Amino acid sequence: MSAVPSGLRRKLELSLFLGPALLLFIGFVLVPMGLAVYYSLYNWTGFGSLGEFTGFQNYLDALTGSVFQNAVWHNVLIAVLSLVVQLPLSIALALLLNRKLRGRAFLRVIVFAPYVLSEAITAVIWLLILQPGGFADQVLGAAGLGGLVRQWLADPDLVLFTLFVVITWKYIGFGIILLLAGLQGIPAEVREAAALDGASAWQTTRHVVLPLLGPTMRIWIFLSVIGSLQLFDLVWIMTLGGPANASTTMATYLIDHGFKRYEFGFGSAVAVILFIICFTFALLYQRFALRRDTQGAVG
Amino acid sequence: MRRIRNVCAFLLTAVTAVSLTACSPGGDSGSENADGPVTFTWWHNSTTDTRKAVWEQIAADYQAANPGVSFKIEPVQNEQFQTKIPLALQSDSPPDIYQQWGGGQGAGQLPSGKVADITEQTKPWIGTLGPVAEDWKSDGKQYGVPYAAHTVGFWYRKDIFTNAGITAPPATMDELNAAVTKLKAAGVAPIAVGGKDRWPDAFYWGYLAARHCSPEQLKKAVETVRMEDQCWVRAGQDLKAFLDTQPFQTGFVGTPAQQGAGSSAGMVANGQAAMELQGDWTPDTMASLTADKDLNSKLGWFPFPAVTGGAGAPGAVLAGGDGFSCTNRTAAACAKFLEYLVSTPVQEKLAAVGAGLPVNPAAAPALTSESLKTVFDHTQRAPFRQTYFDIALPTAVGQALNDAIANFFAGQGTPETIVEAVNQAAAGNK
Fold this sequence. Notes:
- The complex is a heterodimer.
- Chain A is 74% helix and 1% strand.
- Chain A has twelve helices and two strands, in the order αββααααααααααα.
- Chain A has helices at 6-39, 57-64, 66-98, 104-116, 119-130, 135-142, 159-184, 188-196, 201-229, 233-238, 250-260, 264-294, and strands at 42-43, 52-53.
- Chain B folds into two domains: 38-150 and 319-381, D-Maltodextrin-Binding Protein, domain 2; 153-316 and 390-429, Periplasmic binding protein-like II (D-Maltodextrin-Binding Protein, domain 2, 3-Layer(aba) Sandwich).
- Chain B has 19 helices and twelve strands.
- In chain B, the strands form two sheets. In chain B, strands 1, 2, 3, 6, 7, 8, 9, 10, 11 and 12 form a ten-stranded mixed beta sheet that branches. In chain B, strands 4-5 form a two-stranded antiparallel sheet.
- Chain B starts with a helix and ends with a helix.
- The chains are: A mainly alpha, B alpha/beta.
- Chains A and B meet through helix 11 of A and helix 3 and helix 18 of B.
- Chain B: Keywords: Signal.
- Chain B: This is Raffinose/stachyose/melibiose transport system substrate-binding protein.
């Protein structure tokens, strides 16, 4: 029997184990977030005193500025494209790679390989591939499709779609691995039962496998949308948001103004807006889409 | 795991740093004695081996001649300076000596209260450096010293010009247009430009503005951060006419300036383009992007051509420089070191590795190539020196200008919108 009353002991334990983590969280997450909100209310250049208090002017400037509006639109477009292109593609490839076929392990590695690379390395590789007269153009030329050669990164109408292809190349492997894991979780008995009932392979997939993959897909959608909203590294290295802001995202806009123009107050406001958008999406998605999946897992 | 360990290490360092600062009585402030023992923290932007070694040598020499002085040198990549400097100047321990490009950007750092006024210490000798030192002045006070000057002009391939039948470097815009036509006929991209990085585009507009606007108009616009005269619009109109001749390589708005063989510098270095409007650092950059060991002998230089009817001083140059600023802790000792950096032997060392044009004219013979000597002579004779506008103007305004010009290169906007971008940004509009 301990001499310390159990309530106190429990508190001691809690503070011992939780304390350091909590301190880190407060110091490196909550405080910076609070500071960003604070700075966003000032017209601050990043040097010396905070300067003039401008209230919500920075927010107004961002939300009414055409460049920022376009940036938001670009993020949304990437998110939507991810859902309608990457998801079906990932599912198809995952179903394929889940079958018994020769070299399956090798194919899985190949598909997953790009995800292992950092975004910076991906960007540099693709810069070389896509530069005028680069690998992409040579392949098209060799295939007799020289007429399809475009200014992949220099055409304002095309640049966002080019970036989307690179994003897909990099992240499709992650989706596939996630879905493969989901597929492994579907008991063979369920499929067998469907087959016994006379369901065709397509019917089994459509009515049994896909619905059971639902939770995995919902998680993937969540990660994909959040990732699309925060898109930065690839764009920054490949295009700097150009040409003519045609590939600006909220994050590149934020860095451009905060650090390149020394508009730290304004940049903070953009950061807060980006945070609110992501946070709102996350909350709503948890509330309406993920709730079924996480029931029992959380409170 | 790695990350967690890093965080712990960082925390430990932070805690130690805080407690050390708190414990040392009186801190470090007030050691204004130029001869006392001092350790400089020095941030410069030379991250390549040869240049880094030169700075190390210079520091070692200075240390040997000045016992009590020691250095903690930290090379920082060019681009990183933009993010590191605001944070460092906001902290309690900024570097003692740091890379500084002067102009409106440098003036923007003054509210931090950390940048040292070294007017008194530099007064006896700053005049010998010529007009370039003015860029590190604000309100008549000296806040830094340049160690190298830069001038922008056309770097061209003599061999490609000869093949295309161009006998003399173009001296007017009409002659430049004629050269562009001949080069196209010869099957080579006439001019390479790194439009992805935006600032190379701005050289064209900047030079046309310096040709169309008189020195008085140029000075007034930089001082008031307002462009009112029609000459600014005319620069854009001329630029439009020039862009319409399609003088650049395909995909120029997406081409980087200095990275990789496919960059604008790489294209000239490898003979895919005939010329590039760039600073004097370009031969050095080009050499690193090609296997051609003989590149230097093929490169020539000519100044930006004259325009018809411009009010600008003929031969005015678009220019800039590299310099260092001191922070308050070691201001006097730092100013003494900066004086050493502009002395002839040091300037010769810097010139020999292609760090830029010497700010001390006595070191000019140490320049390594004939074309760099040409650039130096041209700069010395120039009747007017206009600092690149993105440096001369306050940072937010300069970047807005670069963006507007880059958009113009991509076919968006008008000559008027470029000027408006400056006036709008100066008014604080985003």
